[in-house]
Predict the structure.
Amino acid sequence: MSTIYQSWGNFPKVSQRAHSVQWRKKSLPDSLDTMLPHGLGRSYGDVCLNENGMLLTTRTLNHFIDFDIEKGVLRCEAGVSLAEILELVVPHGWFLPTTPGTKFVTVGGAIANDVHGKNHHCAGTFGRHVLQFELLRSDGERLLCSPTSNEDYFAATISGLGLTGLVTWVEIQLKRIYHRAIQAESIKFNELEEFFEISTQSDQYFDYTVAWIDCNARGAAQERGIFFRGNHVSEEEVPSQWQIPFLRRLPPPLRTMPINLPCFMLNRWSVSAFNWLYYNQQRQKTVSQLVDYDPFFYPLDVIFEWRRLYGKGGFLQYQFVVPDDDHRIIKTILQTIAASGMSSFLAVLKTFGHLKSPGMLSFPRKGVTLALDFPIKGATTFELLERLDDMVREAGGSVYPCKDARLSARNFQAYYPQWTEFSKYIDPRFSSSFWQRVSL
Ligand SMILES: Cc1cc2nc3c(=O)[nH]c(=O)nc-3n(C[C@H](O)[C@H](O)[C@H](O)COP(=O)(O)OP(=O)(O)OC[C@H]3O[C@@H](n4cnc5c(N)ncnc54)[C@H](O)[C@@H]3O)c2cc1C
């Protein structure tokens, strides 16, 4: 029976069959349909959808296999989520080597999109911390992949968008921590030049850096924002009231967005008002505080189903990277968005470091990346994003597939000329809605 599946952005909605991967058998179904692994569906667009085909849902692959507490090496099945890993490892003084802005993603999903976090400038992408994994192909072959074994499948599967086969288990190297607290600072800035100055300086001393910008403000205020930076603390740095319980705290309670908001409520004026409040709630230029890692890394996870804010029509996240030697392109893109009358509820800016990603199709590269959320308002939204695609291409940049649901084949192939080489590793029985569109 077919069920409607949708990705995080609620667009597109696709009818397809799902097959839950059985833990003991872990064999792939014998069917004429094409297949695609599906983790927690936190990809915004259609890399996790397979129109007219079948999804292999992996949440049954949710067992831990081994945890070396001395060395911080963790082996688990690919459907285990980052939230489950944190629950296990933080009390033992270990942390994820890098993490995206939500912990509700599976390790298999983190590998397939080679995700990045606030520490890209010093840790690179998730794939850099993967020691090995098993890849199950549709002909039943099981490949043990690592930087020294089946290296080509290792590189193709990290950032392989689920197309090279099913990752069944994964071994990763964790990062040592001494407390769950983060020494965090937020600094207000007025313009992009100031953002770049703070970013260059912060990347030397802070493991985690990212900024929010108020791209709905008009005129000079359009480049203002708040820069967030932080480091894990050592035990000695933590005041006594934080010491107990050591490394163990209850996660914040989850609240759920109960309904889809009517789309007229999210407009340029309401978004601008929200952003104004957000920017002005911090009065001082700089605020330093000790915070728990949960709200520092995962502020959006506190409201379950926050995507309903965008209404039934859904939304598109647009994330691109451009070289950071010329700051003008970011300014021009912000001006183009302002002139279009579209408003982005969330705009996140970060500089990527020079550490090379191990995946063949990995998105991060040295430069500056901006992520923007746009509610879908018909053709105008798609036309604006196509214009931005061209500007990014001309600037020598790229767009992130994991957030995409509408990129043209022409632009995808220009951003990722290595796609033909990558195609050799695609499992002949695997496909996705994204791949059907961009590999034309
Ligand atoms: C609030 C929010 C914040 C985010 N922040 C960031 C961020 O900061 N940085 C970032 O990089 N991303 C970010 N993301 C995107 C998210 O990290 C990725 O989309 C991630 O890949 C989702 O994992 P998932 O388990 O939900 O996988 P899905 O979305 O279900 O699938 C993603 C891809 O993984 C493949 N896949 C899943 N399991 C397997 C498996 N076992 N074997 C082979 N392939 C598999 C699927 O086929 C698909 O191509 C964010 C998403 C949200 C909703």
Observations:
- Residues 8, 36-43, 47-48, 58, 78, 100-102, 105-106, 108-110, 112-113, 115-117, 161-162, 166-167, 300, 402 surround flavin-adenine dinucleotide (CB under 6 Å).
